[in-house]
């Protein structure tokens, strides 16, 4: 009988300890809501993107969490909040009137970059189509990025200057020519997380065909187009790193006369700085 009582006592202690441990390990939750007085802001909790302008987390673990509200590359609010069990914790990002008006204006940037362009060269003349192997061109450029409220998009105005590269005419003959261009693009964000944003876009160009060493050719510029996808990563409060991959088609008309097209892919990378 004594042994049975002792066993029951030990069992009760064991079960009680297990239940107490389960209660200690049981996770409790609260609710966190974040609002911003400034439109077009991104909200992060514990470095994880959760929404735009207004966001709520209904089942967030109780305790301290890091909240950050940003617009573009500028931080409007950041700090630690303490979420209570069964309660809603509300955070409102507010700024002074002058700062609010400034924040409503989206930041614009200037982008400096280098690039590699791999094109073909094709010319359609009466009775024949001519294609030449065009070696890759290296170049550099600059563009101004204007963020706009139109479809929440971005407009780019830029110029890309290529160095002359070889066009293989025959086994023993090679011409030199570059294709540079002013251009306009419009793009839109299609993906973002806490470190990277991905944008897609396209636009129009006006290719300038310039002969190089020991090459004499006249090609009048005609409108062309390009399309691209780019990834950006923040480098701080006022600048970010950009890698862009795209397809471009330049057009022109030679003196023969002939319709010239030069199309292919390009890769560009550089830094964008806030204006």
Listing every helix as H and every strand as E from the N terminus to the C terminus, the arrangement reads: HEEEEEEEHEEEEEEEEEEE
Overall average pLDDT: 84
* CATH level 3 topology of the largest domain: Porin
Q: How far apart, in Å, are the first and last alpha carbons?
A: 87 Å
What is the strand content? over 45%
Residue stretches low in confidence (pLDDT < 50, at least 5 long) are 18-25
Assign the structural class, choosing from mainly alpha, mainly beta, alpha/beta, alpha+beta, or little secondary structure.
Answer: mainly beta
For the record, the count of structural domains works out to 2
Quick one: overall form?
elongated
Rg over alpha carbons: 30 Å
Query: What percentage of residues falls in helices of 4 or more residues?
Result: 10-25%
Total number of helices: 2
How would you sum up the major sheet?
11 strands, antiparallel
Record field, number of beta strands:
18
- Assigned CATH class of the largest domain: Mainly Beta
| CATH architecture annotation of the largest domain | Beta Barrel
Multimeric organization: single chain
Would you mind describing this structure in some detail?
The chain is mainly beta and 275 residues long. The protein has two helices and 18 strands. The strands form three sheets. Strands 8, 9, 10, 11, 12, 13, 14, 15, 16, 17 and 18 form an eleven-stranded antiparallel sheet that branches. A hairpin with a 4-residue loop joins β16 and β17. 25% of the residues are buried. About 3% of the residues have low confidence. This is PEGA domain-containing protein. Pfam families: PEGA (PF08308). Keywords: Signal. It comes from candidate division WOR-1 bacterium RIFCSPLOWO2_12_FULL_45_9.
């Amino acid at each position: 009988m004594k042994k049975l009582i002792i066993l029951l006592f030990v069992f009760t202690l064991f079960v009680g300890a297990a239940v107490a441990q389960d209660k200690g390990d049981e996770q409790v939750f609260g609710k966190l809501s974040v609002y911003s007085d400034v439109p077009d802001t991104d909200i992060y909790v514990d470095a994880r993107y959760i929404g735009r302008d207004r966001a709520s987390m209904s089942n967030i673990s109780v305790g301290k969490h890091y909240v950050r509200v940003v617009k573009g590359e500028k931080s409007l609010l950041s700090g630690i909040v303490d979420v209570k069990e069964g309660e809603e914790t509300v955070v409102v990002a507010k700024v002074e009137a002058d700062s609010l008006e400034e924040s409503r204006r989206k930041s614009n940037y200037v982008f400096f970059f280098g690039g590699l362009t791999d094109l073909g060269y094709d010319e359609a003349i009466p009775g024949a189509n001519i294609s030449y192997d065009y070696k890759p061109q290296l170049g550099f450029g600059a563009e101004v990025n204007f963020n706009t409220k139109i479809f929440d998009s971005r407009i780019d105005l830029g110029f890309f200057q290529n160095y002359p590269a070889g066009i293989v005419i025959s086994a023993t003959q090679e011409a030199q020519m570059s294709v540079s261009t002013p251009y306009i693009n419009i793009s839109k964000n299609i993906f973002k997380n806490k470190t990277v944003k991905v944008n897609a876009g396209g636009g129009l160009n006006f290719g300038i065909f310039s002969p190089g060493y020991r090459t004499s050719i006249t090609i009048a510029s005609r409108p062309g187009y390009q399309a691209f996808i780019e990834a950006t990563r923040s480098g701080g409060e006022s600048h970010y790193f950009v890698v862009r991959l795209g397809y471009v088609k330049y057009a022109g008309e030679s003196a023969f006369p002939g319709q010239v097209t030069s199309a292919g892919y390009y890769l560009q990378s550089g830094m964008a700085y806030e204006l």
